[in-house]
Amino acid sequence: MATINAYKMDGLGNDFIIIDRRKNHVELSKDKIIELGKRSNIGFDQIIYIEKEIENSFPIKIFNSDGGEVEACGNGSRCIAYLLGKKNNSKSIKIKTNNRTLNAEIVGEHSVKLNMGKPLFNWEKIPLSKNLDYKKISIDVDGKSFEDGFCVNVGNPHIIFFVKDCMNVDLKTLGPKIENHNLFPERTNVTFAEIAENNLIKVNVWERGAGLTKACGTAACATAVAAYKNKFVGNKVDIQFKEGPLKIEIDAEDNIFMTGPVSEIKNLELEI
Q1: What's the pTM value of the predicted model, to 2 decimals?
Q2: 106 forms bridges with which residues in the sheet?
């Protein structure tokens, strides 16, 4: 059994193990990721590899705690940007995911702003299994119909339902059923959202491949887009999680900017 160095960070409780593979290529098996991801073990929502720099950007690979690779992680990308910024003595970092290049900026002590790019609404890009109106999705679960779901891809797929009391939703039961509904060929993240004030939205999030989570950056972005397009809020809004808000801004070209806190960098030794 070998021991490797890694880092542990979180954004509003959404937590990650980060492994820098630029000098030493390490590959954890799916079973090992699942084992480490258990809350009885180290526990995390995602594990993220940093790859060798390409054209001034840092590629990353992201795996959920169920061992499956995913396309995007907003809070994880902000943590990576903070880590690399501190290592490189730089406030601006460019990160490359499987499908997007993200520009990040350290804007304060333990605060990072990330340009998530533009949302995708085409049913094949979300993706959905058939051509439906992305703003008016109905899902039947256990004989109950959930209406007016808003589907969008912000680097990964999301569905958002606006309700009067988002924390009164049994998301532990509903989340996996909606995530794995046949309408979503790549599964989906699930958010129940509540408009608390003009520029404040409370959310309850089920993260694809990770389950109930304290926070989710892409869910915050997707919720802000859904609320903005539905004219529930303006282009600047706070998305409230259990441990605090993420600030989301949508510019005139539909670019999504997410700003929020990141934790201290903790050093870890992993036995693999």
Answers
A1: 0.96
A2: 112
In the chain, the amino acid numbered 56 is: N
Domain boundaries, the chain: 3-113+262-271, 137-254
Distance CA 45, CA 26 (A): 19
Within 8 A by CB and 6+ apart from 152, the residues are 119, 120, 121, 126, 134, 158, 160, 222, 225, 226
pLDDT number for residue 32: 96
pLDDT reported for residue 170: 96
Please state the separation of Cα 249 from the chain's center in Å: 16
The C-alpha atoms of residue 214 and residue 146 are separated, in whole angstroms, by 23
Secondary structure of residue 176 in the 3-state scheme? helix
Q: Is-cis flag, bond preceding 127, omega within 30? A: yes
Q: Which residues of the chain have pLDDT under 70?
A: none
Report the alpha-carbon distance of residue 15 to residue 46 in Å, rounded: 7
Residue 202, C-beta contacts closer than 8 angstroms, at least 6 positions apart: 166, 167, 193, 194, 196, 240
Question: Which neighbouring-strand residues pair with 218?
Answer: none
Active site residues: 73, 216
Fold for the domain defined by 137-254: Diaminopimelate Epimerase; Chain A, domain 1 (3.10.310)
